[in-house]
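Q: what sequence does this backbone want?
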């Protein structure tokens, strides 16, 4: 496994182009960036990275009718609070850092001060922002009380994700913006300032399967993968967008013109092809990058990159590894479903970290809430 560093002339289908309606065009910086090359020989290996984990804390979330997470979609850990989005039930739920349920944010439904759809959320300073259908709601971060809303209908898109700094400065993302007529130009990413479109990025040329946006620090950087099957990760800051790094799967890298040659995705041909595609998650600390993706034949893979030694560990997803949902400068935060912990047997030769979690949880029940684990990685 190796890392290549050079000034890379990026050739990619979706590039920044001049914007219509005299919107200012901010260029994406094609800077010198790191290309992490994944050894294809690891393709058949199961990725066992538990030997590198240093467990910091196990957090058993309180279980009651208001706090149960049906399907965790996104989470933030900030100071003394844990914010978790349950997309199955369209709930945004807040716990303290010991797992005690504090409150739900907002209420789903029709009418004033209610949201129709929980698409995305982000806590910033003393406010929780929630992305709804063409509207952004804001709530008090201490108790979840409603504050105000931002109407974003004038943006011309119906975003699925956002990156927000304050009520006057934010980015909006929509993978497949609808064209009002043939020949219209649409863009996947917009920068909004003072209620107006400041710049557009990533011209929309073809349908894409939506994926996660990635984040590290709310106020510093926010990583995105703008193309379906793309391996170039872009770093967003308040004043710029630049290339952060790239994943290279060598002969299993999706051809750049794949979607032009294969506009139809009937019978899941895209997911079942022989390439790596759909980078699904990226979480980064000061020393490590974690990533997961869909590989050949729709098999799930995951890997870690050591940013100090350039070592890359990669392989098939392991059921006994925690599912990571957040990272800060030093730690990763993952979770286990109770069913996995209860149904899988102890076997230290298979995954000692998993066994440690299982042994430390007494009286765990199948209907209990998810279990959060906070951990760091080492080089051993």
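A:
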């Amino acid at each position: 496994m190796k890392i290549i560093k050079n000034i890379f002339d990026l050739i990619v289908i979706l590039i920044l182009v001049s914007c219509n309606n005299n919107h200012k065009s901010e260029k994406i910086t094609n800077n010198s960036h790191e290309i992490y090359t994944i050894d294809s020989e690891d393709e058949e290996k199961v990725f066992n990275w538990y030997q590198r984990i240093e467990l910091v804390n196990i957090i058993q979330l309180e279980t009651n009718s208001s706090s149960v997470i049906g399907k965790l979609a996104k989470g933030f850990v900030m100071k003394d609070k844990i914010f978790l989005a349950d997309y199955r039930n369209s709930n945004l739920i807040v716990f303290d850092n010991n797992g005690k349920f504090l409150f739900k944010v907002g209420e789903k439904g029709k009418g004033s001060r209610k949201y129709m759809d929980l698409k995305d959320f982000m806590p910033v300073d003393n406010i929780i922002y929630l992305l709804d259908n063409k509207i952004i709601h804001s709530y008090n971060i201490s108790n979840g009380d409603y504050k105000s809303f931002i109407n974003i209908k004038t943006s011309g898109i119906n975003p699925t994700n956002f990156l927000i700094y304050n009520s006057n400065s934010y980015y909006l993302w929509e993978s497949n913006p609808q064209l009002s007529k043939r020949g219209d130009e649409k863009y996947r990413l917009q920068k909004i300032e003072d209620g107006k479109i400041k710049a557009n990025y990533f011209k929309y040329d073809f349908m894409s399967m939506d994926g996660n946006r990635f984040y590290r620090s709310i106020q510093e950087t926010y990583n995105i993968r703008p193309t379906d099957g793309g391996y170039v990760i872009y770093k967003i800051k308040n004043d710029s967008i630049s290339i952060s790094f790239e994943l290279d799967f060598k002969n299993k890298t999706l051809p750049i013109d794949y979607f032009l040659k294969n506009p139809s995705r009937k019978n899941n041909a895209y997911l079942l092809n022989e390439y790596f595609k759909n980078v699904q998650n990226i979480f980064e600390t000061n020393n490590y990058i974690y990533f997961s993706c869909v590989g050949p034949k729709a098999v799930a893979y995951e890997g870690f990159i050591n940013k100090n030694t350039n070592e890359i560990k990669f392989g098939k997803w392991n059921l006994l590894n925690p599912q990571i949902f957040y990272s800060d400068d030093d730690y990763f935060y993952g979770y286990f479903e109770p069913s996995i912990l209860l149904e899988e047997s102890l076997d230290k030769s298979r995954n000692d970290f998993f066994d440690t979690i299982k042994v430390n949880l007494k009286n765990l029940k199948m209907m209990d809430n998810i279990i959060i684990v906070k951990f760091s990685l080492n080089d051993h």
